[in-house]
């Protein structure tokens, strides 16, 4: 049988070939297209035929191989679908749901606080976590020699350009400064975010934590406006309507105060978290110092305002009875799954 007859015979075989299942289709692929298959042998013999036969049979031979590849691919596609169709599938069975994630306890607390202040006209403002000295300290009434800088142990970030070093922000008050520099009063914002302080990590403290601070600046803003705002927040967030303000000190507010919520002494837990007083400290606040307004080119003779801030970890630990602050940062799935019900 000459080469031309072998090509014709192969074409007739392929026209008649069929596969009943995927296994037969694979066997036919190996027989015709495998490394030791019919086409491999045919192309090896093609090298020794005359030039006239090469010109006459080269194109038909390539087309025949392409035809064989298409037939095998078609069989496999059709038979794969057929096998799926014939499987015993109960289409009335309910689908399998994947396991649901859980919202992080810090995210839960932050979302609730943002929603409360959104309701009274506050918008969310954000800023960088790596700050310069001006926005983190100087613009907030912390001159270089001020002893209040010792109140916050700071992480410094080396500037590769050799100029002024940066810091990991120690509070989100830096966002308030950036907002006052870029916007004109009235300003009414809350600034949530991570902050960093060089503190020893223990069950009650961490070098990373979250704050949410608020700022309201307008004409005629008074201490009474601040107290009313914080009373509203305490009622909405804690479910407690009685607060007290104790004198305190912050470089960027004057006068300054600590805010306590009356928690009560109804059970042992109340005694423990309030140290037997019934009062729970929740945040710091105060009227914005005129020097801070001046630093941001806001006229303190025309405008006044108040600011407040609180840590989210403390509220999360109190709300969800978390005994160790380190659990909040470890991303242990067993811990996080407990907050699915809070969604």
Structural description of this entry:
The protein folds into two domains: 83 residues; 238 residues, BirA Bifunctional Protein, domain 2 (2-Layer Sandwich), CATH 3.30.930.10. It has twelve helices and ten strands. Strand 3 and strand 4 form a beta hairpin. The mean pLDDT is 85. Helix content is 40%, strand content 19%.
Q: How would you characterize the largest beta sheet?
A: 7 strands, mixed
Shape, principal axes of CA atoms? elongated
- Indicate the CATH topology of the largest domain: BirA Bifunctional Protein, domain 2
Supply Rg. 37 Å
Helical fraction equals 40-55%
Low-confidence stretches: none
Q: What is the CATH superfamily of the largest domain?
A: Bira Bifunctional Protein, Domain 2
Total number of beta strands = 10
Q: How many separate domains?
A: 2
Strand order within the widest beta sheet: 1-5-6-10-9-8-7
Instruction: Give, in order, the helices and strands.
Output: HHHHHEEHEEHEEHEEHEHEHH
């Amino acid at each position: 049988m000459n080469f031309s007859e072998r090509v014709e015979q192969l074409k007739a075989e392929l026209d008649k070939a069929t596969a009943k299942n995927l296994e037969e289709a694979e066997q036919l692929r190996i027989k015709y297209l495998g490394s030791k298959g019919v086409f491999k042998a045919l192309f090896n013999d093609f090298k020794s035929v005359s030039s006239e036969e090469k010109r006459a049979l080269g194109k038909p031979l390539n087309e025949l191989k392409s035809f064989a590849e298409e037939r095998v691919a078609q069989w496999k596609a059709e038979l794969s679908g057929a096998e799926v169709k014939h499987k015993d599938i109960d289409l009335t069975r309910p689908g399998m749901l994947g396991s649901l994630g859980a919202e992080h306890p810090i995210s839960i607390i932050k979302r609730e606080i943002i929603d409360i202040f959104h309701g009274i006209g506050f918008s969310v403002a954000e800023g960088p976590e790596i700050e310069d000295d001006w926005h983190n300290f100087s613009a907030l009434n912390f001159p270089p020699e001020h002893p209040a800088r010792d109140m916050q142990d700071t992480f410094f970030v080396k500037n590769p350009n050799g100029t002024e070093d940066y810091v990991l922000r120690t509070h989100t008050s830096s966002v308030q400064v950036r907002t006052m520099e870029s916007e004109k009063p009235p300003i009414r914002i809350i600034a949530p975010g991570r902050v960093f302080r060089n503190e020893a990590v223990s069950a009650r403290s961490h070098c990373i934590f979250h704050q949410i601070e608020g700022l309201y600046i307008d004409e005629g803003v008074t201490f009474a406006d601040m107290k009313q705002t914080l009373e509203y927040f305490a009622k909405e967030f804690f479910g407690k309507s009685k607060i007290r303000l104790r004198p305190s000190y912050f470089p960027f507010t004057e006068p300054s105060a600590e805010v306590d919520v009356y928690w009560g002494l109804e059970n042992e837990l109340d005694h423990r978290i309030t140290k037997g007083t019934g009062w729970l400290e929740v945040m710091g606040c105060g009227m914005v110092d005129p020097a801070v307004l001046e630093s941001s080119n806001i006229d303190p003779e025309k405008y006044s305002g108040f600011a407040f801030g609180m840590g989210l970890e403390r509220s999360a630990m109190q709300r969800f009875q978390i005994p160790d602050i380190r659990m909040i940062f470890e991303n242990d799935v067993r811990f996080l799954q407990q907050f699915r019900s809070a969604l």
